[in-house]
Amino acid sequence: MLVIYDSHARAKREFVPIKPKTVGMYVCGMTVYDRCHIGHARVMVVFDMVVRYFRASGYEVHYVRNITDIDDKIIARAAENKESIRSLTERYIEAMHDDAAALGCLLPTAEPRATESVGDMVAMIESLIERGHAYRAANGDVYFDVSTFDRYGELSNRNPDDLRAGARVEIDEAKTDPLDFVLWKAEKPGDPSWDAPFGPGRPGWHIECSAMSTRALGATFDIHGGGQDLQFPHHENEIAQSECATGHHYVNYWMHNGFVRINEEKMSKSLGNFFTVAEVMRQYHPEVIRLFVLSSHYRSPLNYSDQNLDAARASLTRWYTAIKDAPQNGTPNPEVMARFRGVMDDDFNTPEALAIVFEQISELNRSKDANCAATIKAIGEILNLGQHDPESFLRWAPSSSDQLSDEAIEQKIAERASARANKDFAASDRIRDELQAAGIVLEDKAGQTTWRRG
């Protein structure tokens, strides 16, 4: 039995899909005005893991992740760069796809863009106006009337009266209640706009996800995911406007991954304390980042530090060193695989799953058992870890490093082999010591010398 922690229920619940052995899952994607940071990487890797595990468990998964390609930040960045919005967003969409691929993430089944879904947003706003849940304000903006939805605040466990007491209304806003949120922004000079029955303008952020998710997956679907920071107000607003527009329950299970933290602060672009995925990948192999993310439970805070990334690199080095020369004719151990599925069925407990893998790695190092190697391979295929060529991973070097090149190392090894052949063992030992000081580990076996970076 697979159970998922549902943020709305604030408890683990047995997963019962709307359609047997089929999963409809929507995850809030990126606002493409900059490179993805490690917080975004966590979202991508976590929900890629969820998709892969569902599929390995026999489910058909419809995985939808949107792209927000129209937004105040995008408009401002394009103006700052003196380039078109299209040029800006296309560049960062391509960069996002490159980052996701490097991290071993599958493409979503569908990846709708906000600018290509405005018609659906207009239709949803029309429905909300007709049903008495939205109004056009004096400034031309259209707002959702929160007072018409009596379950507002349930997802985030917040009291609307308390929220009103602390709310602030901006000078240029014309809403009647501080909690009301914008569905449609009236046209402004120089901003992109679309025609609509309630006046030209562009959609607000919250309506985008409601329109794109229900278009792709229907009025009610299984799982909605995203970062913990989106729980309020974004996901709270999605529930209100979606259920009022369609008349149906919106989402059955809400999944939120925890923050990435640096010095006890959430990593984010707005705080200016973020590291882009591209920056980190110059120092660490992308698979190290993937293991780093999966080493913590997806709901827990993830503490970013060089020490934790170094630990992930050491763990992967141990993994690849163990499987490099492992026997290949075994079959996965059914008892171990059952343990693995047991912890994964318990709200995708990847730290416990990885503990099982490293138990098997220890056993493989001790016994050289083919079934043990096959078990490690089977679990690695599901988590998409340990899937690179071992020699390639073990020889990987940071792109910005001053480490010895592969060619220089091979030359040193050839010189050492020549020295050994000439029985110049002092020279041979000196070369080995030089390489060891440079972080290169030599392994002599059956008359051959192989190497890896330590």
Automatic annotation (TrEMBL):
Residues reported in the UniProt entry to bind ATP: K269
Cofactor: record remark: Binds 1 zinc ion per subunit.
GO biological process: cysteinyl-tRNA aminoacylation
Keywords of the record: Aminoacyl-tRNA synthetase, ATP-binding, Cytoplasm, Ligase, Metal-binding, Nucleotide-binding, Protein biosynthesis, Zinc
Compartment annotation: Cytoplasm
Gene: cysS
Gene Ontology cellular component terms for the protein in this record: cytosol
Main location (coarse class): cytoplasm
Principal EC category: ligase
Motif stretch ('KMSKS' region): 266-270
Cofactor: Zn(2+)
Name this protein carries in UniProt: Cysteine--tRNA ligase
Cysteinyl-tRNA synthetase class Ia DALR domain mapped to chain residues: 339-394
